[in-house]
Amino acid sequence: MKFFPEERFNRKDCVSCGTCATVCPSHAIEIRDGYPFFNSSLCILCGHCGIFCPVNAFGMEPLPLNAATEQQYRSLLETRRSIRFYSDKVPSEDEINTLISVLSQSPTGVNLQGITIRTVRGVDAVARLLKPVRKMLKILAFTGLLHIIGKVTGMSDYIGRLRGGEDMIFRGAPVVLFFHVSRKNPTGCADGVIAATAVMYHAVSMGMGTLWNGVAEKIYPFTGAWHTPRTRGTRLAAVLCVGYTALEPKWKAPPRSYNVLNPD
């Protein structure tokens, strides 16, 4: 549901503080005679005017009281691992829909572009995604290019196992999610990456595991059979494999290094 501030604003509750105009990121609100005036041509429907209003003149729902603590958030980060071994338990339709529902709070370019998420559900459906890949590898092998690609990339063993029937791309995941963003999105693929990250951590909170599938993302442009007319006008931003894990991590992973460039 989109947020149209002019339709939700209740003048009787307004105390003329001007907060809504102050926080509006697109300068779509002016204060005239003590009350907000809304320029719909500039409004990006972000809802900031409503969520920061001190008297709730826009009729917003209250924030939850149980906000995550720093330790809870760190625990969520530490629990997440890339999962490549999935159990026979397949997430139900309701579980997948609940997982994806977190996208209702995921930001998008100027709050209007939206995210298109294509779901491939079921082990058999995911397995069918491998058929065009193996067909492409067969053609490359016939031309001799596959051998060269394997040598140059150092992935000869990986390619051989994939051609031999092993699922080296989706790793037997029962659900694969393709995140698409509009080609007109001013922030490029960033919104799709943010959306996939939100779903990834939501999966962890639901007791599931995920794999950020960079391989599928890279070969997507070359596998026309993966494309659908329903995603026309979009670009792929991320691919996420989801399912219940067959192996549970027992110990905390070692910390990863990172660089911080402080001011000179």
Question: Low-confidence runs (pLDDT<50, min 5 residues)?
Answer: none
Helical content stands at 25-40%
Element string (H = helix, E = strand): HHEEHHHEHHHHEHEHE
Distance between the termini: 47 Å
Q: In what range is the share of β-strand residues? A: 5-15%
Number of helices: 11
Give me the side-by-side strand order of the main sheet.
3-4-6-5
Question: Total strand count, please?
Answer: 6
Largest sheet: 4 strands, antiparallel
Offer a few descriptive terms.
6 strands; two-stranded antiparallel ribbon; alpha+beta; four-stranded antiparallel sheet; 264 residues; elongated; 14% strand
If you had to describe this structure to a student in words, what would you say it looks like?
By secondary structure, this protein is of the alpha+beta class. 34% of the residues lie in helices and 14% in strands. The chain contains eleven helices and six strands. It has helices at residues 5-8, 19-23, 48-51, 70-79, 93-100, 123-128, 130-143, 145-153, 156-163, 190-205, 214-219, and strands spanning 29-32, 35-38, 115-121, 175-182, 209-212, 234-243. The strands form two sheets. Strands 3-4-6-5 form a four-stranded antiparallel beta sheet. Strands 1-2 form a two-stranded antiparallel sheet. α8 (145-153) packs across α9 (156-163). The longest helix has 16 residues, at 190-205. The termini are far apart.
